[in-house]
């Protein structure tokens, strides 16, 4: 990720180097106070207002995006290891209020979440560690400009595009499902999730 100098040299830093920090510690430092600047050579640097020095330099925009993404991934891994981070499912049921979702929508979603997701193909018998899963209840819709979107829930038609209220969607290649038009209703599809 470019040529980065990761030595902390501010008051109280005691010459500590980022190489000796965990990524989670580095993420905490990243969030404490810093800004990104465009260097004279066009690349990016990160300046920490905590230690009053440069902590990263010669980053491309992709380097910076990857730094943020890795921090987020490490934060998620860290959270999943925390003792009380994952709460009992009963709390979902106890805390529901029909303000932004109807009781019928909530009950239907709970039914989907309670259905086991079984492997539809186990390639481990052939020495391959891949498992394939079928995710139920996915829909594909064509937007007015021709883009194609995959949704976890049945989407709603807006003026120029389809959307679902939870923004659980992703763009697909527009040449998939060539017969699906903007005027058509979304079609239900089976999503195959394959571990790599």
Please write out the topology:
Layout: H1 23-32, E1 34-38, E2 44-48, E3 53-59, H2 61-81, H3 89-95, H4 103-114, E4 119-122, E5 131-142, E6 148-151, E7 156-157, E8 162-163, E9 169-172, E10 187-194
Antiparallel strand pairs: 1-2, 2-3, 4-5, 5-6, 5-10, 6-9, 7-8
Order of helices and strands: HEEEHHHEEEEEEE
Mean pLDDT rating: 75
Major sheet attributes: 5 strands, antiparallel
In whole angstroms, how far apart are the ends?
A: 24 Å
Overview of the molecule:
The protein has 4 helices and 10 strands, in the order αβββαααβββββββ. It has 196 residues and is an alpha+beta fold. The chain has 3 domains: 18-81, no CATH class; 87-116; 118-194, no CATH class. Strands 4, 5, 6, 9 and 10 form a 5-stranded antiparallel sheet that branches. A 3-stranded antiparallel sheet has the order 1-2-3. Helix 1 packs across helix 2 (61-81). The longest helix has 21 residues, at 61-81. The chain is extended. 9% of the residues are buried. Residues 1-22 and 119-125 have low confidence and may be disordered.
In short:
The chain is an alpha+beta fold and 196 residues long. The protein has helices spanning 23-32, 61-81, 89-95, 103-114, and strands at residues 34-38, 44-48, 53-59, 119-122, 131-142, 148-151, 156-157, 162-163, 169-172, 187-194. It folds into three domains: 18-81, no CATH class; 87-116; 118-194, no CATH class.
């Amino acid at each position: 990720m470019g040529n980065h100098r990761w030595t902390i040299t501010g008051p109280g830093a005691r010459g500590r180097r980022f190489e000796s920090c965990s990524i989670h510690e580095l993420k905490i430092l990243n969030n404490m106070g810093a800004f990104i600047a465009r260097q004279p050579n066009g690349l990016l640097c990160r300046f920490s207002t905590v230690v009053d020095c440069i902590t990263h330099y010669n980053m491309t925009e992709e380097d910076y995006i990857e730094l943020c993404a890795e921090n987020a991934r490490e934060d998620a891994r860290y959270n999943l290891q925390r003792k009380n981070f994952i709460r009992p499912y009963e709390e979902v049921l106890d805390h529901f209020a029909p303000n932004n979702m109807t009781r019928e929508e909530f009950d239907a979603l709970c039914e989907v979440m309670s259905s086991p997701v079984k492997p539809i193909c186990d390639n481990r018998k052939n020495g391959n560690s891949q498992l394939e899963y079928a995710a139920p209840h996915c829909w594909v819709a064509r937007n007015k400009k021709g883009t194609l979107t995959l949704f976890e829930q049945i989407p709603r038609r807006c003026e120029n595009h389809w959307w679902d209220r939870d923004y659980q969607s992703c763009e697909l290649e527009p040449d998939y499902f060539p017969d699906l038009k903007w005027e058509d209703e979304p079609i239900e599809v089976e999503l195959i999730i394959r571990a790599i």
